Amino acid sequence: MPRAEGKTFLVTGANAGIGYHVAEQLATTGATVVLGSRSSEKAEAAMARIRSVVPDARVRHLQLDLADLDSLKAAAGELDSLDAVVCNGGVMIDDAELMYATNHLGHFVLVHWLMPLLAAAQEGRVVTTGSLRGKTVKADDAYARSKQAQMLFGFELHRRQSAVLSLVNHPGGALDSLTPPRKVRSLPAGLLLQGKDAGAWPAVRAVLDPSVRGGQMVGPRMFGLRGEPRVEPVRGQLADTALAARVWAESVELTGVEPA
Questions:
Q1: Domain ranges of the chain
Q2: Secondary structure (DSSP) of 39-95
Q3: Residues marked as catalytic
Q4: pLDDT over threshold 90, residue 103
């Protein structure tokens, strides 16, 4: 990976799961990596783990609660500079309203307050992490709807402004935070799925690769499920600009802010 000394990257939901591995991998570049997390205790534990792998890591914690929309302006104000934000944090719970607010609306509001810092960077980036389920949503899948809204937001943000690069990524068939942390050794799962460390690669490439462009989506190379990250076509519901515009308008109405 390219070196990134002097840069600052914020990763939401970085104390566990794929977000942790995104933060760990970005820490190897020499950048300052800010772990956005509600829990100071969990963030401290995550930073200790990162330092055990990357002894010279520059990491710190930002108190961040995506479900508390009113708190996000103050959280963004704790940062002096920012080169990229990875909108990764999220929950999978029975409360559909809270899940949508946390997974999508929280990032929508956070990016609004971060835009001045990102626009001031040499090449500020918003990297939005979606999911395979977010590509095509069934009516009764509230989690997939929240992830699709995130992804549509990332594409629509690209269309509505030119101050920062806005990219979308997904981890493919990566295992969730309750599964073993890195490799998938069992069969047949190991043929189709990948560990969370590999699931972090698309987001890390979207942050660091100088050749990517705004509006692109990065996912695993092999059938979108596993492997090295590549830029992949945007199709189906994710390519529906009218749907993205409706999600954007509804998000503005619900939050009272507009990132672009």
A1: 8-255
A2: -HHHHHHHHHHHHHHSTT-EEEEEE--TT-GGGHHHHHTT-S--SEEEE------S-
A3: 143
A4: yes
